[in-house]
Design brief:
With 212 residues, the protein is an alpha/beta fold. Helices cover 57% and strands 13% of the residues. The chain has a 5-stranded parallel sheet with strand order 2-3-1-4-5, with helices on both faces. α2 runs antiparallel to α3 (63-87), α4 (98-108) runs antiparallel to α5 and α4 (98-108) crosses α7 (165-181). It is globular, with a radius of gyration of 16 Å. It binds thymidine-5'-phosphate (TMP).
Length: 212
């Protein structure tokens, strides 16, 4: 069976990581070869970029430096993890990909979608998943969920929820715009309600679009 690359996207607190794990579990129970990975992360370079981007640094990252690091990590991730797994027929489930850069750096930070897409073309050849599941949640609910999680977590990561509601609103709106622009690739999934209900929405969207 040919490999397939699926990304999960959404504002912080949308529940995408939980849903990615639930989908992986379901596919593995069916005997499928599943690789789960994330951005930033997924490789040693990705982990280093993750701490530069998400942890407090003595030297704060300039927005364009942040953007360049995310694309450097993505090029490494594609070559080292995503492409080989897809080539051997695995289902690759990736927690965030290029759409996150368009939403967070392009819209959130205000660098603009054009710059992000230009770099994407130059550095990553415009690589895209076959399917992107965008978990859509209103930013206020997402912020409340994310802040509870942030208080509980001891990871030392200072995530983007610290940027506040206006930032997250721009991110959420950018994700909706991407879903409208590329309806063949992107499925917008309502992320409100119980985990089980969202799990079924995710499964139905993935199964319908990928012919599972
Ligand atoms: P997460 O692992 O909880 O999804 O956190 C990753 C954080 O990094 C999240 O706040 C979004 C941010 N991020 C960007 O700003 N740009 C990107 O390109 C990626 C992949 C993530």
């Amino acid at each position: 069976m040919p490999g397939v690359f699926v990304s999960f996207e959404g504002v912080d607190g949308s529940g995408k990581t939980t849903q990615l794990e639930l989908l992986a579990e379901r596919l593995r129970a069916q005997g499928r070869d599943v690789v789960t990975t994330r951005e930033p992360g997924g490789t040693a370079l990705g982990q280093a970029v993750r701490s530069w981007v998400l942890e407090a640094q003595a030297e704060p990252l300039a927005p364009r430096a942040e953007l360049a690091l995310l694309f450097a990590a993505r090029a490494q991730h594609l070559q080292q993890v995503i492409e080989p797994a897809r080539a051997r027929g695995a289902i690759v489930l990736c927690d965030r990909f290029t759409d996150a850069t368009e939403a967070y750096q392009g819209a959130g930070r205000g660098l603009g979608a054009e710059l992000v897409r230009e770099l994407d073309r130059l550095i990553c050849g415009g690589a895209r998943p076959e399917l992107t599941l965008i978990l859509d949640l209103d930013p206020e609910t997402a912020l409340a969920r994310a802040q509870t999680r942030l208080r509980r977590a001891a990871s030392g990561e200072n995530r983007f929820e610290a940027e506040g509601a206006a930032f997250l609103r721009r991110v959420a709106e950018a994700y909706r715009a991407i879903a409208r622009r590329e309806p063949e690739r992107c499925a917008l999934i309502a992320a409100s309600g119980a985990i089980e209900a969202v799990r079924e929405r995710v499964w139905r969207a993935a199964a319908a679009r990928l012919g599972w």
